[in-house]
Amino acid sequence: DILFNLAALCAAVAATAANSPSITAPAQTYRWVDDKGVVHYGDSVPAEYAGKERSVLNGQGVEVGHIDRVKTPAELAQQAQAEELARQRQQHDQTLLSTYVSAKDIEALRDERLAQIDGQLQASTTYIESLVMRLGALQERAMQFKPYSSEATARRMPDDLAEELVRISNEARNQRKALDAKRKEQADMRAQFEADIQRFRELTAKGRS
């Protein structure tokens, strides 16, 4: 009967397959270059080249994989730094897009912040001018005393005058340093705002394209 013969045939095929030796996949072959530039092939890579760049080939010699060389600690640190900078840049881009509606919003905030620093600079400049005037008056008074006066009858400079001269001189120097730092802060802020405006325009232009 036809059904019986078909079943018997299937059983015979299955038995034959079970008894036949298994077919193994061809082993992988590696291709690498030694220190002299000579290309080598083999089913394993020598230990001295384990950290080198190499290709993985199938049984037909076609490249199916690639293994990069082991990076040095310096290269790994540089890669980590670049990835961190990229992450910060992406986060900053997201902040720009979620905070501002248009470039005019950034410009308005820029003008407000720079105006605040301008006010601080003007106040510092006025204060320094007052210190300079005070210091000039003290120096003029000090000329009446030794060691600045050449008069034989000149008295030794009073301690309170000497202390005030030192105090005002130090305060003026410190205020000038603070003024220079504030000017640098203003310049850095202006540059950062300009960069943010340019970046915001680039991001929004991409979104419209």
In percent terms, what proportion of residues is strand?
Answer: 5-15%
Radius of gyration: 40 Å
Spans of at least 5 consecutive residues whose pLDDT stays below 50 are 1-10
End-to-end gap: 72 Å
The dominant shape is elongated
Describe this structure in words.
The structure is a single chain. With 209 residues, this protein is α+β, with helices and mostly antiparallel strands. 65% of the residues lie in helices and 9% in strands. The protein has 4 helices and 4 strands. It has helices spanning 2-19, 73-99, 103-142, 159-208, and strands at residues 29-33, 39-42, 54-57, 63-67. Strands 2-1-3-4 form a 4-stranded antiparallel β-sheet, with no helix packed on it. α3 (103-142) runs antiparallel to α4. It is elongated, with a radius of gyration of 40 Å. It starts with a helix and ends with a helix. The model is unreliable at 1-10 (pLDDT under 50).
Task: Itemize the secondary structure elements and their pairings.
Layout: H1 2-19, E1 29-33, E2 39-42, E3 54-57, E4 63-67, H2 73-99, H3 103-142, H4 159-208
Antiparallel strand pairs: 1-2, 1-3, 3-4
Overview features:
alpha+beta; 4 strands; 4-stranded antiparallel sheet; about 210 residues; about 10% strand; disordered N terminus
Task: Write a brief caption for the model.
This protein is α+β, with helices and mostly antiparallel strands and 209 residues long. It is 65% helix and 9% strand.
